[in-house]
Amino acid sequence: MRRGGLRRLARRKSTVAFLLTLPLIVLIAALVIYPAFYSIYLSMLNKTLERLVGLDNFRFLFTRDTFWMVVKQSCIFAITAVLFKALIGFCVAHFVHNVPAKGQRKWRGMLLIPWVIPPAMSTLGWFWLFDPSYSAFNWLFVRIGLPAVTWLGDPLWARFSVILVNVWYGAPFFLIMYLAALKSVPEQLYEAAAIDGANWWQKIWYVTLPMMRNIIAITVLFSLIVTFANFDIVRILTAGGPIDQTHVFATWAFLQGIEGGDLALGASVSLFMFPILAVAAIFILRDINRRGNEAS
Amino acid sequence: MAAIAPTAGTARSARARSLKHDRRRALYWSYFFLVLFAVFFLTPPIYMLITSLKSSAEVGAITNPWWVYNPTLDNYKALLTSVEYLTFFRNSAIVSLVVVVVTMLISIPAAFALARMKFWGSATLATGVFLTYLIPETLLFIPLFKIFAWANETFDVSLMNHWWLLIIVYPTLTVPFCTWIMIGYFASIPKELDEAALIDGAGYLQILTKIFIPVALPGIIAAMIFAFTVSWADFLYPMAFTTSADQMVLPAGIVTTLIKGDVYAWGQIMGACLLGAMPPLLIYAFLMDYYIAGLTAGATKG
Amino acid sequence: MSRRPFTRRRFLGTTAAASAATIGFPYIRTSHAAGSLALGFWDHWVPGANDTLTKLCQDWGKKEKVDVKIDYITSQGNKNMLTITAESQARSGHDILAHPAWYALTYARQLEPLDDVMNPLIKQYGKVATAAEFLCKSGGKWIAVPAVTGTQVKPPCARLDLFKQHAGIDILSMYPVNKAPTKEADNWTWETMVVAAEKLKKAGSPIGLGIGQTTDSIDWVGAMFHSFGADLVDAKGHANVKTDAVKQVLDYSKRLVAAMPPDVFAWDDASNNKYLISGQGSMIMNPPSAYAVAKRDNPKVAAQCYTFEMPKGVKGRYAPFLPFLWALWGFSKNKSAGKSLLAHLLQRENVEKLVNASIGYDIPSFESMRDFKVWQQVEPPQGAVYHYPPRGTEEAWMACAPAPASIAQQMYTQSIMTKMIAKYTQGGEPMDKVLGWAASELEGYQRS
Predict the structure, then answer these.
(1) Could you tell me how many helices (H) and strands (E) chain B has, helices first?
(2) CB contact under 8 A, A36 and B139
(3) What is the rounded distance in angstroms from the CA atom of residue B81 to the CA atom of residue B63?
(4) Which residues of B are less than 8 Å from A94 in CB distance?
């Protein structure tokens, strides 16, 4: 009797659980997993999408200098941007943490603004600030005796500009996450460190950083994923130019697939984001598993 | 003993004084850098505001770009009386709100099941959901066209170029992350709570609605804000899936209708962007604390 | 074909055979094109030009009992290309779309043949510009018709005052107001232009020709390459990169770049307009939209802006041509109505209405229609756009022609020619390396 009841309960439990997750499974399977596999299939077709060519598209990509340039630039773009986002977020979080609690909300709200404006819109503002004929930055530069900068015209400056805008947009997110983490570090730890005669640097190194390790890892990984797949900022600011120097995977795939009318090649380029993201995934997986173990 | 005590006392007070001094110096430096970063963070929006108050003749003139000589609200008037722009706003609002609801309807039950009801494959599924977050939308939109073609030919429903299509595709961007946040949040609720309820004879659905949802409200609000922000801001999907001006949402609409090829109406574009940023700005202004609490709790649990 | 029943009363008596016959000749008023049509036209840059097209279509729709829905799709950010690709994959969307230059050929297999629209029109109005015909025809069949709205050339638009004062060139003596070019126009060559550019740079008002990766840049550079005889790919698809002509055009561009603002490499289709309107620039190459906006925002500058022919090269004088095409999807459910509308829009009186509405921006592809009055009437200055449409003394040239479409489209969207210039000048790469890079790129475009 008792065993039967238990079994029925278990059966009911798993049925309920399955039903609860069913919408999620359907959504993900139909609109993410299936299209993802379809794009693998696409990447193995020829340009006119009429016959299978196996891995020829990838083989072709490997012979293209521009492709390797895009790989390099995507990495430079993502890593530099995330690094600076984390760094700025970390520093500014400390500054906000230092001021009296009364003013913190105000500062936090103000500094969060870049992250709240949809990037497609704020990037247009930056685009206008960088405009060749009307750049408001250049107007200031010329006034104080500096040469005008070709923000989006010179390959190096253009790379700098797209990263700058990405950092501007993403840093506030790091800021609020780190600020919340800072607040959760017990004050006694700092007091103990102070009594031991630790200077501010040692406090950061031995107290703050270990306490924030988890959140730093998670924010950096998340941001890496999003930045790596970034489309709108680069697309609106430079569309990849000058001379392809600012292309990242997403924008180059768009150029090849949509503008160049070669969907198969575009899909192949997009797929290249996978291996790199998979590395990020492994780290995140480890983290999730650890979290799962702690929770149970 | 007596000799040592005063020395220790003065040393302590000296240290306290220097600590206080240090604190004050740190405070000044903090303010200094905060102002510096505030300038960096706020320059673009402020410049957008300045530009939006200029007539197009003033935008085109070579004068001090940081100053408005003849302020005018014409750009805002034009926007707020333009049927097109108001339609973008309405579409954005409906799409984002419905997506928030849909996302919650999908991710709350799923997160509950994955966090509390261990079943066959639940761990794999939890990981899998998270991994879908890694698949970029640039990879998905072309295959999605194929699915639409299939739907068109099989059911004779044309999905392309309708704003409501975004309600179907946006959850793919919001659900994985929201589910993940909620799993974390639900996992932090003490097990004793639902075990007690189970023993009292409550069903799983009751536990979810009576215990988990009220307790996890901050996390749910954070997830809702996330879903709203993502659907309000997405750019690629509306660009790819909608074309008619009356079907567009804000970001795509501004880029495609206000920018007339080689003739930019900069005053209007900047005004449109600022107005378009208002709803998320207001939400953050009022709900920021929930958002931060929910996000950090969900993401850093463990 | 429309699946809806024919409703018009006066057809009750006609037989099915008779109505089938009328479908062969779409532009016959009595062809009953009931149902609905979704149209995606190019979003015009000249303020107000869209309205005239809307009215033409709506009036036609009322008469033919067709429910017409029009979308204006911008080419900014290449949204129009995204729409074309999307609809070709989703096999739904609009019935008629405006395709930029090479697109119709790329999607030729999915487009409805339009011989029955074009052949009667050609009989009526004569020859279509060669470049437009090349882009509209696939396998001997018309798969698109040359559009009126958006079809443009991009000749120089210069400041009369600055050219006279600083470069000593009187543009009006070469291209007089509302009259054919004079003998002096023979001296208007690429060499003359670069010398003038150097003088204007010294005077602080450099000319500004974009060398970016959008159409304005690609089109004029394409025309320049061709007038130097530097076609990178011939009609059979063979690449000819390492030729003297290519080297000459690159060396020439080095001199030209030195006389222009340093950021021309990042210019998009709007940058040159802003440059002219702001009063900084002495010349750009663009259709009259820049002039139209200057008239609104900076009339003093506009009163000195004069559009005239391209400079001549050793192989001739070529106007940068960017045709738009109207094409009907094969999946359209109302093809007869679509054809009928296209034929209607290309009637001379309607073309003239559209050209007038665009203040002469749109170039009719039928060469017999380049005599409209509007090009004499736009002012100030007098004759501002009279020399804008090519009239025999220069030929309209599509950048990347005569390469086969699949290669040309890649050359165009990857903007290989402007990148060659950028690498050679801004990037400072040696000639051999630039040519080697271009050859390898072209090899990559041969994919099928």
Answers:
(1) 15, 2
(2) yes
(3) 29
(4) 30
Q: What is the pLDDT of residue C28?
A: 42
Asked if residues C406 and A252 have their Cβ atoms less than 8 Å apart, the reply is no
CA-based Rg of chain A, rounded to a whole angstrom?
24
pLDDT (tens digit, 9 = 90+) per residue, B87-132? 999 999 999 999 999 999 999 999 888 888 777 777 788 878 877 8
* Residue (of B231, B85, B87, B241) closest to B161 by Cα position: B241
> Dihedral of CA B250/B252/B254/B256: which sign?
negative
Nearest to A31 among B105, B169, B277 (CB): B169
Which residue among A60, A236, A242 places its CB closest to the CB of C447? A60
The answer to whether the CB atoms of A98 and B114 lie below 8 A apart is no
Please name the residue that has the structure tokens 């990879």.
B139
Cβ–Cβ gap A240/C426 under 8 Å: no
User: Chain B residue closest to A108 (CA)?
Assistant: B288
For chain C, domain boundaries: 18-151+323-372, 152-321+378-445
Please name every residue paired with C36 in a beta bridge, in sequence order, or none if there are none. C67
Q: Is the residue at B61 inside a domain?
A: no
Q: Please give the structure tokens belonging to residue C2.
A: 């429309």
Closest Cα of chain A to C81: distance in Å?
Answer: 6
pLDDT(C33) > 80: no
**CATH 3.10.250.10 corresponds to the domain C18-151+323-372:** no
Per-residue pLDDT, A289: 57
How are beta strands C145-146 and C324-328 bridged, if at all?
antiparallel
Task: Point out the residue among C266, C410, C447 whose CB comes nearest to the CB of A242.
Answer: C266
C neighbours by CB contacts (3+ pairs under 8 Å):
A, B
Cβ–Cβ gap A273/B139 under 8 Å: yes
In what helix (H) or strand (E) does residue C320 lie, and over which residues does it extend? strand C318-322
Q: In sequence order, what are the beta bridge partners of B260? A: B263
Average pLDDT on A124-138 reads 85
Structural domains of chain A ordered from first start: 62-295 (1.10.3720.10)
B39-60: pLDDT as tens digits: 899 999 999 999 888 887 777 7
- Whether C292 and C46 have beta carbons less than 8 Å apart is answered as yes
Residues of chain A contacting B48 with CB distance shorter than 8 Å: 122, 125, 128
Helical spans, DSSP H, in B53-136: 56-60, 74-80, 83-116, 122-132
Q: Is C51 near chain B, with CB under 8 Å?
A: no
| Beta strands across the sheet bearing C395-398 | C152-153, C318-322, C395-398
